[in-house]
Amino acid sequence: MTNEQLEQLLSELSLEEKLGQLTQCEASFFIENAGLAATGPESAIGLKPEDLKLMGSVLNCVGAENCIKLQREFMENHPHHIPLIMMDDVIHGYRTQYPIPLALACAFDDELTEECARMASHEAALEGVHVTFAPMVDISRDARWGRCMESCGEDTTLTKRLGAAMVRGFVGDGGENTVGSCVKHFCAYGAPEAGRDYNNVELSERTLRQTYLPGYKAALDAGAHWIMPSFNSIGHLPMTGNSYILKDILRGEWGFKGAAISDYNAFREIQWHGAAETMKDVAEIPRHCGVDMEMMSGTTILHSKELLAEGRITMEEIDTSVRRILQEKNALGLFENPFRFANADAAADYIMSDANKALALRAAEESAVLLKNDGALLPFKKDIKKLALIGPFAAEKGIKGFWSCVGVDEETVSVYEGIKALLPDTEILLDAGCSYDLLNTTPIDVLTANAKKAAAIAKEADAVLLCIGEYQNYSGEGNSRAEIRLPLPQRILAQEVLSENPDAAVLLFGGRPQDISDFEPLTRAILYMWQPGTMGGTAAAHLVFGDAVPCGKLSMTFPRSVGQVPIYYAHQTTGRAIKDPDIPGMPHPFTSRYMDMPVSPLYAFGHGLSYTTFEYGPVTLNTDTLTEDGSITATATVKNTGNVTAKESVQFYVRDLIGSVARPVKELKDFKKITLAPGEEKTVSFTVKEEDLRYWDKDLQYVSDAGAFHAFIGPDSDTQNYAGFVLKK
Ligand code: NOJ
User: Fold this and answer.
1) Closest C-alpha to 261, from 240, 236, 243, 275
2) Could you tell me if the CB of 147 is within 6 A of ligand 1?
3) Residue nearest to atom 1 of ligand 1 (CA)
4) Is 688 helix (H, G, I), strand (E, B) or coil?
5) Which alpha helices (H) appear in 460-501, and where do they start and end?
6) Which of 278, 387, 447, 532 has the lowest CB atom count within 10 Å?
7) Cβ atoms 727, 690 nearer than 8 A
8) Which pLDDT tens digit goes with each residue over 464-478?
9) Residue 678 sits in a domain of what CATH number?
C-alpha cells in the first residue's frame, strides 16, 4: 500500500474503527466467543461484542490454522477489511526451545544468538505470528527479580550486542519467515525496589541513561519497529504515562518512528498505581505520551470519544497513533497478504526439525557455565559402570524454562534421558531424593531420611551427579524470590549426598543466579545448566562426559548471599572502598563492608571455567596516547595450556580513572569468542576510540574526559591484566 493509499484509508475510518486499531485483546476472545451469545470474555475489560469486530490486534493466537481462520473471518466482518496484527511472546524459541535468554547470554556469542532468534522467528512465522514481544533488554542486577531469566543479564554492552543480535535474527531482512520485533520493557523494569516484580524503580537519570537505556536503543537501531513501555513506575511515575521518557527521549532524542504498545492491562493499572483517578483519566494520559496501542484493557475504546469532546485529547493524537499502527501493518505486508507466512504444512515440517534441535543443543552446550571444577572432577569418564543420578532434576522435564511459548515439557530431554542415550550400557541409579517445591510441607525427619537414602544409593555408584536447583516456574514473570537459596528439601539432600560423596558433581538448574553457599564448599564441581530448553538433558550429558566442553561465562554476578544484591561488577569504588573485598570486613573498620561476609561475589560476571586452561599474555597497546580522532588497539595472547580444544570468550574492559562524577571500576567494551586447540595460541585485539569512552558527566552531557584509562583483557571481570593509556584532548 502506498502512503497515499494509507492516508486515504485513515481518512475513511470512523472514530470507532480508529479506536479499535488502538486496542489489542487476547485471541481467545474471538475463539471462545464463537459459540457464545450475549456476553463474552471481552466484558471483562469493559468491551462489547461489536467492539471486537474493530480490534487492531490480538495476542496469543496459536497455530497457523487458527490464525488464518481468525484473520479471514475478522477481515470479512471489518468495515474496511483491515487485517489484525498477531503478536506473541516468542522469547527463547517457539516450540523448539533454546536456553532462557539469561543463559544464552552466557555464550557471549552474537552469531549464535542471532541464529537462535532466526530459528524461533521462522517457527513462529509459519504458525502465523507477525510480531514477537522480544527482545527483553532490561538490565538485571538483582537476582531476586524472577524476570532476570528473560534478560541478557547485568551488563550494558552485552545487552546491547545480544539484544541487537536477537532483533536481527527475528526481523532479518523482513523477508520470508521472519517476524517483527517489539522491544521491551521500556524502561528499567529490571531494577524494581527489593527485587519484586512490578515494583517502583528509583534511578538517577545518569544511571538510566548510562546503563539502562542503551540496550533499548541498540535493539531499535537494529530494526525493531515496536516498543513496550514497562509496568513499573520510575521515580513514582508509571511508565505507561511517562511523557519525559516516552516522548522527549524516545520519540524526541531518539527519533523513534515505530509503534508503542502498552503492557498487559497497563493502561488500567495507571489507576491502580494511584496516578489517575478515573478510567477516563487513564485513557487520556498515555495518549499524550505516544503509547499507540492498549493491550488488554478497554479504556481507549470506552473513553476517547468523551475525552475528544472535552478537548482533553485531540483527533491529531488519535490519528497519529492509528497511522503508526497502519504503517506497521503495511510494513509487514499485511494489506497484501494478511496471513503472512502462516502455513500449517510447512510448520509441521520445520518445527522441531532435527536442524532446529541441533541448534538448540549447541546453544544449551555453549550457555552452560562451569562454576567450579576442583582437580578436574569433570568431565566424568564414559567407561563408568554405575552412575548415580540423584536429585529432583535428575529425570525432570520441566527444565526448558519459563516463557516457553508453545514449547512443552513432554518434548524436553531430561538429564536421565540424555545420559541414557549417550551411555546406553551404563547402569543408572536414579533417585529424586526430594521434590523441587519451593514451599516445603514435609517434616524435616522425613526429608532427612529420604536424603540419607539417596546418599546411600549414591555411595554404590562409580560416579555421582547431583541434579538440583530451581524449578522453571520459580523464575519468570511475577516470580520474585526473597530467598535465592535452594529450597529446604534440596538443602538437606545436598548436605547428605555431598558429605557422604565428596566426589559428587553438581548439575545446577535455575533461572537466576542463586545463593549456593549451603552446598558450594561441599562439592568439587558445579556445572550451571540454567534452564537449557528442549535439548537440555542431551547437552548436560555431552558436557558431563566430555563430548562438549563448557565455555559459558556468567552474564550475571553470583552473590554469596541474597544480602549482597543488587551486586554487579561495574560498580563504583566509593570513598571508602574495602582493601580486601575477599575477606569479611572485621579488620576493615569504617569501610564500605559487611561485618559478616566478604564484599566480593562468589563468582564474578564473566566467570566460567573450561575443561582446559587458558593462559593470558600481558596487554600491549599500539600507542599509549589516544587522540580524539584516533584509536588504540589493545592486544593480548591467549594460549590453550590444556589437553582439549575449547572455546574462550575473551573480554575487554576499560576503566576511566577520573571523571567529573564517580566512574565504574570496569566496563565491558567488547568481547571475542575464539577456539583454541591444545597448545595453540592466538593474538586477540580490541580497538577503542574516544567515542567509546563517553559517559553522562556531571552536567548530564555525553562526553569523554581527557586523562588516564586502563585497558583490560582477561577471562572475566575480575581480571587485573591491563595496560594504561591517556586520552589527550
Ligand atoms: C506481560 C509481560 O510483562 C510482557 O512481557 C508480555 O509481552 C505481555 N504480558 C504479553 O504476554
Assistant:
1) 240
2) no
3) 264
4) strand
5) 488-500
6) 278
7) yes
8) 999 999 999 999 999
9) 2.60.40.10
